[in-house]
Amino acid sequence: MAIVKPFKALRPTKDKAAQISAPAYDSSSRDKSYHELETNPFSYLHVVKPYLHFKGEKKNPEKHFPLGIEHLTKFKQQGWLQKDSSDSYYIYRVIKGSNAYTGIIAAASVNDYNDNIILKHENTLTEKQNELAEHIRWFKQLGNPVLLTYPDSQKIDELINHYIGTQIPEYNFISNDQLKHNLWVISNPDDVKIIQQEFENIPKLYIADGHHRSAGSAAYCNYMRNAKKNYLSDDAFNFFPVCLIPFSKLRIFEYHRLVKDSLVYDVKFMESIKKYFDVIPSGHLPVQPLEPREFGLYFNHTAYLLKLKTEFLKQLNGILDNLDVSIVEEFILKRIFSINDSKTDKRLSFIDGSKGILTLQETIDNKTFDLAITLYKTAVSEIIDVAENNLIMPPKSTWIEPKLRTGLVIYETEE
User: Fold this and answer.
1) Half-sphere exposure of 220 (CA within 13 A, CB side)
2) Mean per-residue pLDDT for 276-291?
3) Any residues with CB less than 8 A from the CB of 221 and at least 6 apart, and which?
4) Predicted local distance difference test score (pLDDT) of residue 65
5) CB-based contact 295:277 (threshold 8 Å)
6) Is 291 left (phi over 0), alpha (psi -120 to 50) or beta?
7) pTM score, two decimals?
8) How far apart are CA 319 and CA 169, in angstroms?
């Protein structure tokens, strides 16, 4: 039984929603974050990334976070951020091209996370989760919900469709990255009860994106429980914000591998590849695999389609071994390049399929990297199998959309 609660969100006013909320830029998008801070005085990034105001400095909470708190206080005092008066669920829809991603923003239970009712499929870095816990401790809030997925529910779908079809959205704007965002507030007690009861009937939830945010929230909760011995089970710090989207509404992109190694240009490289794979020359454009167990190589303006040889397919044993990303890890990265740790080896990088195959080609042609290994996307069923068997996928196995906007629906860990 999953506990998924409504909560009183801290949210931008309608006229400021587009300006305050921001894309959840990761560490590789620092230039975009700088631009956002320099051009938009209302951006929530002033709150969550105040250290970027100090260019060249390593993040230092004692020095940098007070500036973020100043911005947060200002946003509240100016009335740009306001807290809802009643516990609510929030329907959030992102439209990208002709794809609409619709989910419910709510508060999930840290106990469910600890007890594996909320299942994981990726490892987290202790340092990163502790950084997030420290951030929550300072700011007492989290503005970027964790993306969870769950088995499709007809009742929840019907309720969502009713609101979308009959209610004017609270937010309706197009962001600078050309995505359309809508938000509906569900505060009607009867509708709130329907959603809460439906999730109580769902035995497991699955993290699609946001493993570190989940782990950071759990670490913060543990800190608060130790500090507050007589805490109550419904204290806000026992929960964290999530956006729940059913299995059928997620979109999973492939995650390609990029390798920087002069071995690529040695004749022995292709000889090693042919030891494990059947190799089909495929012209001068990168191959985008269209089926599982197909892989592409692109280097030196030349492309190949690869299929693992039958004798090696027969050696695959278990759920993890049979993942396409695991096949690449074992038979190319480890056996040929001796890349034994994909998380730390500087010769290896990743590019998600949403960037497009042309971006990948340019990355190789301009010699940023020497080799691209292209893959087919991981299936939702594979994520479920891995999570339910308490297994961990190799790093960067999935790129899942939607990517949620930060600062649009903010969860406060103190009432």
Assistant:
1) 30
2) 97
3) 110, 237, 238, 240
4) 95
5) yes
6) beta
7) 0.90
8) 43
Of 15-19, 88-92, 343-347, 410-414, least confident by mean pLDDT is 343-347
Token couple for 62: 């004692």
**Structure confidence at residue 376 (pLDDT):** 96
CB 88 within 8 A of CB 186: yes
**Site of tokens 């998924």:** 4
For residue 1, the Cα-to-chain-centroid distance in whole angstroms is 24
- 382: nearest Cα among 213, 208, 234, 231: 208
CA dist 375 and 90 (Å) reads 35
Query: Which residues on adjacent β-strands are paired with residue 306?
Result: 279, 295
Dist. CA 142–CA 214, nearest whole Å: 11
The CATH number that domain 255-376 falls under is 3.30.1760
The tens digit of pLDDT for each residue in 339-362 reads 998 888 999 999 999 889 999 999
| Residue with the two structure tokens 């931008």 | 12
131 DSSP 8-state letter? H
* Beta strands in 26-156, from DSSP E residues, in sequence order: 81-83, 89-96, 99-109, 118-119, 141-142, 146-150
Locate the domains of the chain by residue range: 4-247+401-412, 255-376
**Rounded-to-integer distance, Cα 296 and Cα 86, Å:** 53
Q: Is residue 75 within 8 Å of 40, Cβ to Cβ?
A: no
Residue 272 has pLDDT above 50, yes or no: yes
Cis omega (within 30 of 0) for bond into 66: no
What whole-number distance in Å separates Cα of residue 85 and Cα of residue 83?
A: 6
Tens of pLDDT along 31-53? 788 888 899 999 999 999 999 89
pLDDT confidence of residue 354: 87
What torsion, rounded to 10 degrees, do the Cα atoms 76, 81, 87, 89 define?
A: -160
CA-to-CA distance for 122 and 124, rounded, in angstroms? Answer: 7
